[in-house]
Structures are given as C-alpha cells and as structure tokens.
Design goal:
124 residues, mainly beta, five-stranded mixed beta sheet, four-stranded mixed beta sheet, 1 helix, 9 strands, binds copper (II) ion
Length: 124
C-alpha cells in the first residue's frame, strides 16, 4: 500500500515536471500498477485482486536468481507471460483485456512454482 502510494506520488511529480527524461536507466513504478516482489520462491503479495480490463504488474526481483510471471486461467491455459526479470531488476508486465475470473500467477522457471512461487489473481 505504502509503496504504491509512493509510486503514484513519484509519477505525479514527474508529470508535473513535464516528463523528465530520468537518468541512469532507473525506472519507476507506473501509475496504477500492482507491485509484486519476487524472491526464492514466492511472490509478495501472493493474492491480488483487480478489475477486469488491463492489469499492469510492476515486477520487482529482490531475489538472487531470475524470475518471471505467467498468468494461467482456470482451465489451465497460460494467457500471458512476462519477460524474465534478472536478480535486482524490475519489469513492467501488462496483461491486456483480462476477463473476470480466478487466475493463477506463477513463475515459469524450472521448479519455482513447485517450490511455492505462485499466487492467485482474482479479476472482478
Ligand atoms: Cu522464479
């Protein structure tokens, strides 16, 4: 909650400055995105609820190996997969036009989901 508020404030400040180019390749959390922190072997939070439509995740890899996030629907079909996120890196992951329902998000790296790296996305 606090991280999201800070991210929104940062974006507002950048917008007020007329779209700073930013420096040094550092990127900040997009407004309205859901921050999910990845470590070995879990997502935090592991339960996410969002309105249907476009869902934007802000993936923060605080672990020591690479991770990603994929979304699987209730029939077991994977509908979206993020880019790989290196240890210490961040990536924006947009899932477009997602319908209401219950989904599983998980890491596709071998053994990670089995080790507990998964969560539940509820789309309302
Ligand atoms: Cu992983």
């Amino acid at each position: 909650m606090r991280a999201l508020a800070v991210g929104l404030a940062t974006v507002a400040l950048l917008a007020a400055c007329g779209g700073s180019t930013g420096g040094g390749g550092g990127s900040s959390q997009p407004a309205g995105s859901i921050q999910v922190t990845m470590t070995e072997f879990k997502f935090d939070p592991s339960t996410v609820t969002h309105a249907s439509g476009n869902v934007v995740f802000w993936l923060v890899n605080s672990g020591s190996t690479q991770h990603d996030m994929a979304i699987r629907d209730s029939s077991g079909k994977t509908i979206a997969t993020s880019e790989l996120v290196s240890a210490g890196d961040t990536k924006e992951f947009t899932v477009s036009g997602i319908a209401a329902g219950t989904y599983t998000f998980y890491c596709t790296q071998p053994g990670h989901e089995a080790s507990g790296m998964k969560g539940t996305l509820t789309v309302t």
